[in-house]
Please model this.
Amino acid sequence: MRSKSSAAETLSDLLLGQTRGRILALLFGAPDQAFFVREISRRTAVSVGTVQRELEKLAHFELILRTTYGRQVFYQANQSHPIFFELRSLVAKTAGVYDLMTEALTPFAGQMAFAFVYGSLANGGEKAGSDVDLMVVGSVPMDDVLMLLSSAEKEIGRAVNPTVYSVSEFRKKLQEGNHFLSAVLRGKKVMLFGDADELGKMGGVRLAQGGAQQP
Model:
């Protein structure tokens, strides 16, 4: 049997990692819903084998429930676990950030050419209190963006710093060689709305390989 200190260290390690974070964000973001392995793999963009290994670890600590129906195995967040609410809050503030922000901005999806997170959160260098750097390109007024993000800020426990450009202004600044925007485009980012390749083509900026990903 493991000592308490050993178990605590293992549980701490369990919460780290991008892949595990995606799985936790999916399951704890919809705790009333059960998912089968291939569905989790598809929705998190993680291979089936990797998903299975992560699910086994999470089930070992009873953070998720494993249920079998015929030949199909389903997994679901364990709402009866003593740390369910704390873990759900933690996931929302880390791996669930992108889903919450996407949901918040969805009412104006038709008015946004692009919306993406950049900076420390996107490149993995964030700290507990790091702000979320968001860029929106489209016809959405700044006041509306701030209004939409107010509830998301409370849920993720981080301040969101949006920068808003119209499409023409954004394109013009890039063509003029704006250093800030050029650096942002070449850096890592997580696309919430729009296509990363089209974003790079807009200003003739060649994105770094692996520089953009979907949440």
In short: The chain has a mean pLDDT of 82. The first strand starts at residue 35 and ends at 36. The chain has two domains: 4-93, 97-213. The chain is about 50% helix and 20% strand.
